[in-house]
Design a protein that fits this description.
CATH class of the largest domain: Mainly Alpha
Distance between the termini: 70 Å
CATH topology of the largest domain: Arc Repressor Mutant, subunit A
Structural class: mainly alpha
Number of strands: 4
Strand order of the largest sheet: 1-2
Order of helices and strands: EEHHHEEH
Length: about 100
């Protein structure tokens, strides 16, 4: 962990450790902020960033990975909608329809 007078910079390992202490150590955000000299805003952001989710298959995903997957899912849904419209345009309809 390195610090300067204007803002503190913390490495990823430190951030993950603090989040782990919050999630599994039974300490409040306020207690961790006071003990380690970090801002509540920073800790809240780290918790969002480094919190994990366990899938049904047992895979563990970070919040960033979940956000990336949601973004990719929205992109694929949009592409599917475009393809459906293209099929409707280019598929000839018989006069019996």
């Amino acid at each position: 962990m390195s610090t300067d007078k204007r803002s503190a910079r913390y490495d990823e390992e430190f951030k993950r450790t603090i989040v782990n202490l919050y999630q599994n150590g039974g300490k409040t955000q306020e207690a961790l902020c006071k003990e380690y000299g970090i801002s509540l805003t920073s800790l809240s952001r780290w918790i969002k960033q480094y919190s994990t989710v366990k899938t049904d298959e047992g895979e563990i995903l970070t919040a960033k990975q979940v956000k990336d997957l949601q973004k990719r899912n929205a992109q694929l849904e949009e592409e599917l909608l475009i393809l459906k419209k293209a099929i409707a345009i280019f598929t000839p309809h018989s006069s019996n329809d």
